[in-house]
Design a protein that fits this description.
By secondary structure, the protein is mostly beta strands. It is built from 1 helix and 11 strands; from the N terminus they run E-E-E-H-E-E-E-E-E-E-E-E. The protein has one domain: Beta Complex (Metal Binding Protein, Guanine Nucleotide Exchange Factor, Chain A), CATH 2.170.150. Helix content is 5%, strand content 38%. A 5-stranded mixed β-sheet has the order 9-4-3-10-11. It has a 3-stranded antiparallel β-sheet with strand order 1-2-5, with no helix packed on it. A 3-stranded antiparallel β-sheet has the order 6-7-8, with helices on one face. A hairpin with a 5-residue loop joins strand 7 and strand 8. The chain is globular. The structure holds zinc ion (2 copies). One zinc ion (ZN) binds next to loops. This is CENP-V/GFA domain-containing protein. Belongs to the Gfa family. One of its GO terms (molecular function) is metal ion binding.
Length: 143
């Protein structure tokens, strides 16, 4: 299988992913709105062991411990210390998975269309739902 690649806006952080996504979703939670600056986050979860981050210089890959998440669990949000792009994250208790913003990935994204939308209760009202997507008020009870 080919390697999927991605980077932050300035290119200081590069990501290489070997495996297929475990799941993809759109997240409307207020933490994702703030951390991305966008109306919602589009995210793909991969096995953490299949993701390699490389930095152009030491320690430019930063991590913010987000304790405000609506899930009530700590979310570790990775971002570039130079351009500020969000480049990944993991949720406490699910560290075997890394969640990557779909927008930082290169190439064809047709296999990444999210089938589920999370935290629908926080969705901005002028954002339409994706056709056929399954909506969750918060999170599904099983991850
Ligand atoms: Zn950057
Ligand atoms: Zn979110």
């Amino acid at each position: 299988m080919s390697t999927r690649t991605g980077s932050c806006l300035c290119g200081s952080i590069k990501v290489a992913i070997k495996g297929a996504p475990v799941s993809t979703n759109i997240c409307h939670c207020t933490s994702c709105q703030k951390s991305t600056g966008a109306a919602f986050a589009s995210l793909a979860a991969f096995r953490a062991s299949e993701i390699i981050y490389t930095e152009s210089e030491p320690s430019i890959l930063k991590t913010y411990d987000d304790t405000s998440s609506e899930s009530g669990r700590l979310v570790k949000r990775k971002f570039c210390g130079r351009c500020g792009s969000p480049v990944g994250g993991s949720r406490e208790g699910f560290e075997e998975f890394s969640i990557v913003p779909i927008g930082i990935l290169e190439g064809d994204k047709s296999d990444l269309k999210p089938p589920v939308e999370l935290f629908h209760k926080s969705k901005i009202d002028w954002i339409p739902t994706l056709e056929g997507s399954q909506l969750f008020e918060t999170l599904p009870s099983t991850p």
